[in-house]
Predict the 3D structure of the following.
Amino acid sequence: MSVPPPQSLGSGIHLIPAPLPYESPPWVNTYAVESNGGLLLIDCGTDWEPGREAIRQGFDYLGLEESAVHTLVVSHLHPDHVGMSARLVGEWGCRFVMHERAANLVDSYNDSPGYMSRLKRIASTHGIPDPITNPATHVERPYYMPLIEPPDHLVRDGDTIDLGDGRSLHVVHTPGHEPAHISLRDSRTGILFSGDHILPRISPVIMYDLDLGDVLGDYLASLQRLIAMEVGVTYPAHGTLIDQGDERARQILLHHDRRLLDMAELVRSEDTTAWQVMLKSFRPNLDPLQSRLAFLETISHLEHLKLTGRIRDETRDEKVIYRA
Ligand SMILES: [Zn+2]
Ligand SMILES: [Zn+2]
């Protein structure tokens, strides 16, 4: 899929799509917002030349100056959003803003061997056959994901980022897809910059990890917040713009409700591991990355069912078995 051209969206907001080294999603939407006589950039993509070049050319095409960027805000700690932050902050000398939870999570973002060993532990307790050699648990740090620096300015839910002229971005903490995830609501237009929290056609992956608690529960609560806020026009980090953000949040809630019902049913029919539930819930022949994501998403669903009292678990031979 080819990357769409940059465009000005009105109200001082400019969209600059930057290609990603993935098949899906093929690009990330970065947004340059006119602010206090300069520019604020939301998200920046992975650190590779085509992405850097797209930002350079996008600014040129739209008549914007990179030297005017005083702030980079990143929605969450995934490489397709924060990957190029160290390079851009170094080149531009700009402020780097993220949610306060990112301050502690940068270390684990930078620690690939640590992630790999957590993943192998999760894999063996949740029933992946041959967890040490299974390609689904093998992660290598890609070249486009260099180590990053922590943000130098932290925000929390309810904070505002001043844009000048009485206009601001209102910070909405929307954990679930990633614990430090924020969405930003423009006080002038009501537009929501949703990062990966809601996306137009796909439902963002909700990945289980050790020590994060009920990530799916966090995610569903973050969707409910958008519904309560009656969010309208939404500018997501991937894909096309969304007309009605609260409606999209409802659709994604429904998708998870259905999946929870189906998985609870599978557990009721027989005692099972997360890996077995994953094999029955997703299409066959997933590649190793897709299998890993589907596996972690399955655990987040089963843990949510357990923590809300709908199923139980027990440990047999060092494996977590879910049961009615
Ligand atoms: Zn993400
Ligand atoms: Zn993303």
In short: The pocket of zinc ion (ligand 1) is lined by residues 76, 78, 177-178, 196 (CB under 6 Å). DSSP finds nine helices and 14 strands in the chain. The chain has one domain: 7-265. The longest helix spans residues 245-269.
